[in-house]
Amino acid sequence: MGSALLTGLLAGGWAPVEDLAVSEPDQAQRRRLADAHPGLTVVDGPIGVPDAVLAVKPELAEAVLRTLAAAGVRRVLSIVAGVSAARLEAALDPGSVVVRAMPNTPSLIGAGVAGLSGGSMATAGDLDWAEGILGAVGTVVRLPERQLDAVTGISGSGPAYVFLVAEAMIEAGVTAGLTREVSRQLVVGTILGSARMMAETDEEPADLRAAVTSPGGTTAAAVRTLEFKAVRSAFIEAVAAATERSRQMGR
User: What's the mean pLDDT in 17-31?
Assistant: First the structure.
């Protein structure tokens, strides 16, 4: 997610020299980032700046923050899943600011969506600062921290659900006799167009689905099969599982 956010920011006009620097302990990843983004500062230790974006595995978050605090970091935007603002604040110097967010991988192409919440010391200005970062790569929704686990389950993990649906539909097209190239083109175009319809009209998804589903027609037969196979229930359970996993990671 950190790499996707970095790429999205650079594509959105952030300067690799003036605006951004990356601390990355893994040598191979440092080399990959430096090769992919000429001019970007990529080091293996903390950088002496007051503000930082934390994009590490949850089990490493607090140890990394202690190192950043020693280097002078006083404000952090964390995109680490599950780890509460209170725990992150405790790893920093007193009075330091934590803003938590859960973006998703379409940030890579400037089409991400992120939930954003401030910690106990965060002001409106701090939230504006964090939204300025995430807003450069997509849409930002502000909400209470207690809802971030659900955001993780819906939109943080959500691209994987869509890609899984696309995989299945492409395979179905091949099974029905289409070439894989044609099936992929049709599926990607269908998902993209359907998403635009939801975004650009005032129609609810259920109403848009109903408009496509003529009584006794092909779509009705397909939807009846999906409902019989409990696909709707499977998605609800999948989001619940991801949400609960996010809660567990924060304990």
Answer: 85
